[in-house]
């Protein structure tokens, strides 16, 4: 018998201890004011604790209150699901399934159309309706081959790059990131609470870091790179955030020109990034550690489809199966002038898909035809894949680099 109840501020220590035990970790002591550890931005009122028949805590699930940028620059509130774990002594007894079912019901009650998470193991969450929606990778460049291609006449950057310490730049980092995440599909917000408490990973976490801050010709901050140099003389870039291509090029030039390092490793490079094309030697850089990142779970099919922007007109009848919630619906999606309508229909479907696959294609990072070729989508008309590709295509590949 498993009992699941919501948590409060008074349960925070018990929640954190149970979650750490589920992952085989020990709780790091927080710094002054309870800050400086990755879990210090938890929202205790949004947690769930599972108890066994003897009243012992055996599982956790939490959520952050975030915003997600969709194609077309549309921004929607989402729950960032986190801290999901079950004690090793109670696994494979239905605890995780019960937690996920209870949590999804609560997210729907909040009126949210989507939930997102980062999957510690990618085989876990598809059965709960989540689908991989963005990917990311590292990109390594040997310092001796790091020269950038010459700039064309008139392309010189009129801005400047300023070197700062992370502790002196937090307010600027927060402002630049917030501007950036509103422009990039797949990005999620970083609430002020995160920056204030130093939660998460650098540069939010207060670890020693240098910050290269780019300012445009008017002196306005429009990009930054957070980095440090390891003992093996590898310059590791936590993240490079740039509102404009000119800012990114200037920051890349700064990082790749750093003296006394053997190589430069950029973390969280999106799949469509121009970094390889900036190098004079196109083959100098090598991708490393490609991984899925943000997973999306559609909670309200019409709500999710009408929340994003669209770059093509057309119609599709989608037959969507949601086995975890025991739901099956057919929807007519109609797009005109960048706006969508989505209503129930009895028309014959153009394609059938699982709700997890709808989460995958919603942000535009994976073409429906790719999933059809892999056997995930069932096509009912010869031109259904082409029409779906044209509709779901995004203006930029979705990308998320925030860790939660």
Verbal overview:
There is one protein chain. The chain is α+β, with helices and mostly antiparallel strands and 404 residues long. It has three domains: 3-112, Aminopeptidase; 136-290, Aminopeptidase; 301-355 and 364-392, SCP2 sterol-binding domain (Nonspecific Lipid-transfer Protein, Chain A), CATH 3.30.1050. The chain contains ten helices and 19 strands. A hairpin with a 3-residue loop joins strand 3 (57-70) and strand 4. The protein starts with a strand and ends in a 12-residue tail after the last helix. The mean pLDDT is 96.
What keywords describe this structure?
404 residues; alpha+beta; Nonspecific Lipid-transfer Protein, Chain A; 19 strands; SCP2_sterol-bd_dom_sf; acyltransferase; Eis_dom; Acetyltransferase; aminoglycoside N-acetyltransferase activity
């Amino acid at each position: 018998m498993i009992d699941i109840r919501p948590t409060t501020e008074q349960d925070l220590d018990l929640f954190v201890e149970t979650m750490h035990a589920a992952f085989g970790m020990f709780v790091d002591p927080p710094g002054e004011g309870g800050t400086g550890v990755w879990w210090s931005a938890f929202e205790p009122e949004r947690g769930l604790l599972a108890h066994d028949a003897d009243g012992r805590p055996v599982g956790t699930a939490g959520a952050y209150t975030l915003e997600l940028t969709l194609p077309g620059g549309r921004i929607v509130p989402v729950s960032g699901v986190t801290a999901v774990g079950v004690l090793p002594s109670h696994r494979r007894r239905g605890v995780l399934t019960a937690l996920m079912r209870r949590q999804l019901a609560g997210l729907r009650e909040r009126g949210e159309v989507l939930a997102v998470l980062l999957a510690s193991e990618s085989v876990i969450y598809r059965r709960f309706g989540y689908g991989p929606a963005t990917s990311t990778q590292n990109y390594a460049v040997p310092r001796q081959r790091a020269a950038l291609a010459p700039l064309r006449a008139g392309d010189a950057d009129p801005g400047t790059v300023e070197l700062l310490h992370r502790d002196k730049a937090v307010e600027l980092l927060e402002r630049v990131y917030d501007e950036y995440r509103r422009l990039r599909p797949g990005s999620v917000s970083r609430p002020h609470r995160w920056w204030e408490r130093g939660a998460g990973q650098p540069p939010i976490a207060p670890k020693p870091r240098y910050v290269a801050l780019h300012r445009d010709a008017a002196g306005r901050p429009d990009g930054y790179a957070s980095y440090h140099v390891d003992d093996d003389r590898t310059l590791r870039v936590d993240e490079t955030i740039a509102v404009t291509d000119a800012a990114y090029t200037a920051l890349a030039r700064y990082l790749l020109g750093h003296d006394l390092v053997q190589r430069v490793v950029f973390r969280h490079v999106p799949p469509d990034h121009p970094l390889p094309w900036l190098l004079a030697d196109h083959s100098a850089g090598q991708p490393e550690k490609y991984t899925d990142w943000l997973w999306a779970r559609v909670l309200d099919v019409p709500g999710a489809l009408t929340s994003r922007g669209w770059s093509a007109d057309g119609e599709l009848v989608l037959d969507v199966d949601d086995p975890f919630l025991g739901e099956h619906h057919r929807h007519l999606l109609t797009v005109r002038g960048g706006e969508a309508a989505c209503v129930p229909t009895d028309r014959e479907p153009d394609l059938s898909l699982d709700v997890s696959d709808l989460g995958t294609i919603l942000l535009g990072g994976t073409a429906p035809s790719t999933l059809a070729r892999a056997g995930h989508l069932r096509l009912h008309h010869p031109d259904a894949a082409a029409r779906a590709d044209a509709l779901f295509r995004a203006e930029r590949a979705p990308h998320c680099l925030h860790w939660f």
